Amino acid sequence: MNKKIIGYAIAILLVGSMVVMMVKTSLDKTEPIDEYLIATEEVPGLEKGATPPDFELTTLAGDVVKLSDLKGKKVVLNFWASWCGPCKAEMPHMQKYYKKNKAKENVEIVAVNLTTAEKMGIEGVEKFIDAYGLTFPIPMDRDGIVMDQYQVMTIPTTYMIGTDGTIAHKIVGPMDEKKLKELVNNLK
Questions:
Q1: Mean pLDDT score across all residues of the chain
Q2: How far are the Cα atoms of 20, 83, 107, 127, 130 from residue 101, in angstroms, in the given order?
Q3: 159: closest CA among 178, 143, 144, 172?
Q4: Which of 20, 38, 84, 151 shows its CA 20 to 30 Å from the CA of 47?
């Protein structure tokens, strides 16, 4: 009886290890993303040149992120949810860009989680952050107020904000590292 239990435990560990390795391998891949849309007047949302609404949100670690505190920096303000396929495609690119450029560029990525839209709750968000090794600030929009203020209808949605604190672009859909770098470099 004990040998059977030990055998099952070993089999479960082997299968579990294989699954973890397959998921890790797929997470490490950052395929180029060809489909993104720089929003125009036809897409609802805040307009180019507008000053975005200020907000103050808290991360899972309890850190407070206030948008107005970032004035003077280039800001990539991203809205996402853990179940969102395009968000899963985009996040490895954002993390790679952030890791390479945070220290040498005057840029901050703020990835607002649309917590009211989460299907797996906070636990799903935590697993997503851990799985992708995200290190940029991730404030939680627990009441959906910021989502409403920014008129986020499709995720991921990203606002590129210049050092003057105004919106330069709104991107609907996922971006790859190359496009992200290009857009940040064009911010003033």
A1: 84
A2: 29, 27, 8, 25, 21
A3: 172
A4: 84
